[in-house]
Amino acid sequence: METHDPNVTYCCVPSGCDYCDPIPMDDLHDAVRVVCNNEHCRVGQYMHGECFEAWEQTVLSYLRSTGRARSWSERQRLQNLWTKKGYDLAFKACGCKCGKGHLRKDLNWMPPAPKSGTAGTDADKRKRNRKKNKNDRPSLGAMAVVGSIPREGRPMLRLRSNSMSSTGSNSGSSPPSSTGTGESPMSPSHLVMVVGSAGSGGCGNVGGCGGSGGGVVRRRSSAKFEFFSEKAHETATNNSSIFSRRVDYSSFNQLPRHKINSYHIKMEEDGNCGNDETRCFVLSNLAAAHAARITCVLCQSLLLIFDQYPLIDGTFFLSPRQHSKGCLQVKVDGRVQYLGAVCMGCLEGWNTVLRCRYCMKQWQGTPLILGTMYSYDIFAANPCCLDRLKCSQCHKLVILPEQRCSYFSDYSNSLPCPHCGHLDHHFVKGLATYYRGTGD
Q1: 45: phi > 0 → left, psi -120 to 50 → alpha, else beta; which?
Q2: 8 Å CB contact between 342 and 378
Q3: How far apart are CA 149 and CA 146, in angstroms?
Q4: pLDDT in tens, 388-414
Q5: Omega of the bond leading into 310 within 30 degrees of 0 (cis)
Q6: Quick check: pTM over 0.70?
């Protein structure tokens, strides 16, 4: 049962925690939050990251032998597991220790940043405290197999990311009163995946299909780990498409090792060529504007647009505000929106660092999935202070801090101010409300 000490909680993994130490509530950066659909469950809401990864593998094993998921690729199972599409099939393997509900990863929860000086030490401490028994599970972190991913995607990203393609539903037997669904700019992460170079085929037209898939790139024995091919980054165009063809993924080699996987980087799904709503939306609008490149709204660097996932070396997003002249005006459900992009360097804080002018907190783009599109303003999705909750006209609070929105996309919606009645996208502030600095 959940501890009564408000400063700590205990790992609620159903398969049994492998560590002796509790989870401190003031340092949850290495934890994963889950939700039980039993409203009266008191077992707990957090797992150690390693415990969650091991437990998730058991759920994936169940999913492999269930219904239509048998025909999915391993990557599709990983991407669909915590969405309605996959969870409807796998929830029976997610029973909670309370015995009356089922667990689901909370995709709305964003782990806090690690405290200074604690990053990298918690996992080591737990390894020293790990229970020793002959039935102990083997370490999954040492594996390097296609279909196993480390702690995203975590893509967030799914709902790996809140892209338009991530919200589709399929028929299935969902658990009753299921909670915890929603949109998230983050994704889970699991075992390290070695992703192959792009196949020779691709989408020549918007919505067109291509040929064979990519292969696995083996790890090099050198001290520098590179999971993608070191071939020169080449692009090619043909007469039927203005977009580039991605030959390899070497541009992502500069990412931290734990982020080189298909949860942090949106990859092409098997059998889905040309049928993805997000890709069709992005490429069709850009093709209509004859735009084969787009500028980063932060550093103004030009970014190539590719005809298959990852669509860009960064991420696209939609906003009701035009953050820069490079943002493209589009129509979504009859509403005017602006399609913008942020490059990988600014998301990771290498090129540009944003700090709120009101509270000086740094904006974090690292949890976002690369190569896809978010259907909301990524700068407004997680307000850092009270000033970002104020009316754009009378500057009074539109909502109280304890009335946080349920979904990240809610902060991009228009609503009336309760004080002056002004209808606006109050939480979508301009980039002028940030100080810009250069990255490391």
Answers
A1: alpha
A2: yes
A3: 8
A4: 999 999 999 999 988 888 889 999 999
A5: yes
A6: no
